[in-house]
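#struct-help
A.M.: can someone run this one for me? Single chain, 281 residues.
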Amino acid sequence: MNVRAKLLTLLLVLAMMPFSATAQDDPPDIPAGWEIGIESPQDTAPIFEIGLDGEVSVKFWIDNQNLATINLDVEFDIPFDGSANGPETVEVGAQSNKSFEFTINQIDVAEFAASQSDRFIVTGTVTGYAGIPLTTGGDSKDGEGNITIPMVVDLTIQLAEPSGPLNAGTISSLEVIVSNEGNAVDSVYQVTVTDSCPLLDVGGADDLEGVAIEMGNNLTQILNISTSDSHPTKNCVIEISIQSRGDIDAGRSQTADSDESTVSIVEDRGDSSNGDDPLNN
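D.P.: on it. Structure tokens below:
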């Protein structure tokens, strides 16, 4: 068999063999890119209530699907004039997910209405791959969440001082003012009045209960004070304390505020004018 015949035979054999299409298949998907987000409890929307101290701890995550480690700068945009204490630069390994914690703080919650909510933003910007800095601006992405202002309960009470002594067997009055210095509508849940004199009676305090007081407003009530005819001369201390509806609704059973006033009771000695008056001697 000459060379030409051998070549023809080889071509026929090759034509009968199955042709491999591996080189023509689409290349496998190679993970690439990265994402940033805010961790939220129990897979709910990332909404966080600020503490009464103006702080809340939050975590953000970065998912790096690149085949190299990425380096990022991190910036925080916090509403309500707040600040953030967290990492300014982070590093996330190739094809890995990493979480970072930061604290939102320095928010004066009493300056904002309760339940007010606003968005915070965590921005990540790629600055390098595998430790090699980028020479041009890197890719930036945002993670977003919301923070909510809590209810600040701040009911105060002021009990006026009497205008002068009170004669036994007579009636007088004291003005009491409840002020709402909190950041939401509130009311007096319960009022308690005590005094140091068993023959003294104080009425009208119950009218303070259940009346809505707008934030920044006051509620004024007149307390009626009456004494027995037989009340001896004595200084009587009247104390009034209140509980806030806001505290009760939040599960806190505590005194919001209290104040006291001292009333001087003068014993009724009857008509002292008689023949024994020393001025007539």
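A.M.: thanks! The chain has a mean pLDDT of 88.
D.P.: also worth noting: The longest strand covers residues 117-129.
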